[in-house]
Amino acid sequence: xxxxAFIIQKEFKQIxxxxxxxxxxxIMPLLQLIILSNAATFEIKNIKFAYIDQDRxxxxxxxxEKFEASSYFNVLAEYPSEEQSDQALLKGQxxxxx
Length: 98
Hints:
The chain is of the alpha/beta class. The protein is built from four helices and three strands; from the N terminus they run ααβαβαβ. α3 links the parallel β1 (47-51) and β2.
């Protein structure tokens, strides 16, 4: 335990002896924290969304309206068949098909 206390004491003496080290030790990590916390976001937005509505009821229309109202989805189109929706997905015109 004495050894660890001695090493900590020695390191603090080294830090405060060299005044050029203080900005590197304290300011640089704060800058990194501020910059990187704003850069890293896990929020997914603007998903290209298309759908096939074979039901055509008020419930299915209400579901599509909820997707349209969301800021996470860009509702692009309604496809009449699965083949057309698969082609749109493969071409990158849509990210997801419902």
